[in-house]
Multicopper oxidase CueO (Tenggerimyces flavus), 471 residues
Amino acid sequence: GLAGAAAILPAERIVSALGAKPAQASPAVELFAQKLRIPPVLVRKYRKWGVDYYGVSMREGLAQILPGAKTPIWGYNGQFPGPTFKVEKNRPIKVIQKNKLDKELAVHLHGGNVPSSSDGLPGDEIQPGDTRTYFYPNAQQASTYWYHDHKHGLESFNSYMGLSGYYLLHDWREDRLDLPRGKYDVPLIIQDRFFNDDNSFRLPVPGEFAGDVTLVNGVAHPRFEVERRPYRFRLLNGSSMDGLVDLSLDNGAPLYVIGNDGGLLEKPVPVQHLPIAPSERYDVIVDFSKVALGAKIVLRNAVNFFGNRAEVMRFDVTKKAQGYVHPIPKKLVHLHRLDPKRASKHRTFDLRSNLEVGQMLINGKAFDPARIDIKPKLGATEIWTVRNTEAPELPIPHVFHTHLVQFHILDRDGKPPAAHEAGWKDSVTIEAGSSIRLIMRFGDFTGRYLYHCHLLGHADAGMMAQMEVVR
Ligand code: C2O
Ligand code: CU
């Protein structure tokens, strides 16, 4: 049957609470006027002692986001979105990041199981003009990861200006499955923005928390020509603020969810609509093979923030399938589940704002880079209960994100997670009044890492904390 996701995202409620008009509307965008672009794949510089080296410079650039004038951005290699890393499991890489902007920056590999020194922590910023080399072992599961700026206090601002991109980790297990690959494996990063009349980004003012224009791969409301066959889409909500989306296809066809943030599911799960919070990834297959040639199918977003359009993008079915097409696999991978009985530590985290002081807090505390909040033991399995204890009058959702580890959702308000979110995850939405239990294992690295709300404005406002994994 179709797994609904009804429990997850009554975000309209929040909008009605806060008012949904932008301070200044963006220029009108003609829908589907521009073609979707695929971010370029980053080319390795060289290989030495078994490590692939990549070079990236963070700098200003111009991006064709709207028709007409280009938009000034800050981007990895001056591009928006940044170039896509395509890397192989167990093939480590080093990324030499050069900061050519006039501000401190920190690069974070979201979902990455990496040494603390490569995690982009406060205190490890790259000064203007400097470089820093990040080491990514790639020993974790193949999945859709991404990278973005993590300069403390400016995460939302810097990534709003363009500093984000894909990191696709591939392994041999995927090949065995005959999933759509090559040009049929398409990253789709969804991001909201406001624009000024000259097409430059307009920064949100207080009270605005999601843009009125929706971009896919850095193009406003694009169209994409597809063949009559299944496609794999790496959906990523890369919004910098609170741009929750709830996606569906206007021909009523399901999205087959095949993977979560940290890897593939056991089998494809068809859903009629798919809520995706900022920083979550859903790997999906859409099957255009039963659709007539010439059909135009709109990807819709049911969450209406600040007058944004419901039509995210359009798929134009323009060609017959080329060559042999594998059917959607019935089975994917075996998911190893952690045993709750083996958990050696239980922790509880309350997420709540203090609007009087304008802070958002975890267990009553705002982030302090000098403070270690918890010390998980290397090798330990832990269960975390995370509660959104916001007041019912202002039911703000939070998106809880852990660095370093992937978790399974044990339950949400006592009920098991929906089938399409039962895989490995590093980010999860928790509605006000809700409580969720997560299980995770601290397996690979010691040192400091963050956990925080991934509505990045909330993290900037203090909803972030620090763990130190110890022996
Ligand atoms: Cu997407 Cu702390 O990260
Ligand atoms: Cu939050």
